[in-house]
Design goal:
The protein is α/β, with parallel strands linked by helices. Helix content is 33%, strand content 23%.
Length: 140
């Protein structure tokens, strides 16, 4: 199952983040609207928020924050597009399995959607899409 990871990025090599408490001595940046960040970084040295994840890496590059938080796939996409030489710090701070949600009015589609996903996994097309879209974003 595909998951959603919350990861940290840092430019300084001496920064090690293994859990939320490890963020306490640092200035931390994240994009507004993410409740998990608001809840978990209340005790850090300083918080900087941005309207968009695209503004986080320049803050990190300029030394205005020590650590930035975002989802693994979004972060890796920006790293790749902009040529930043950064990798997400491991382990991830949080992991959530991803699910497809449908409006109740589309409940009749659930059996067909379920079967289609099973078929895609069985015939390899699910992996092919993953390999073409997300695998290149995995940290090297």
């Amino acid at each position: 199952m595909l998951g959603y990871d919350v990861v940290a990025y840092a430019k300084r090599a001496d920064i090690r983040i293994r859990n939320w408490d490890d963020l306490i001595p640092y200035s931390v940046g994240y994009a507004t609207g993410w409740k998990i960040y608001e809840d978990k970084v209340k005790n850090v040295r300083e918080v900087t928020t941005t309207p968009s994840i695209f503004e986080l890496f320049p803050l990190l590059e300029k030394g205005r924050v020590d650590v930035i938080l975002l989802d693994r796939w979004g972060g890796q996409s920006i790293v790749r597009q902009m040529g930043y030489g950064l990798k997400p710090l491991e382990p991830a701070l949080a992991h959530t399995d991803m699910f497809i949600y449908l409006n109740k009015k589309h409940a009749a589609l659930v059996p067909r959607l379920t079967q289609s996903l099973r078929d895609m996994k069985a015939d390899g097309s699910y992996k092919k899409i993953y390999d073409a879209t997300l695998k290149p974003l995995e940290a090297r």
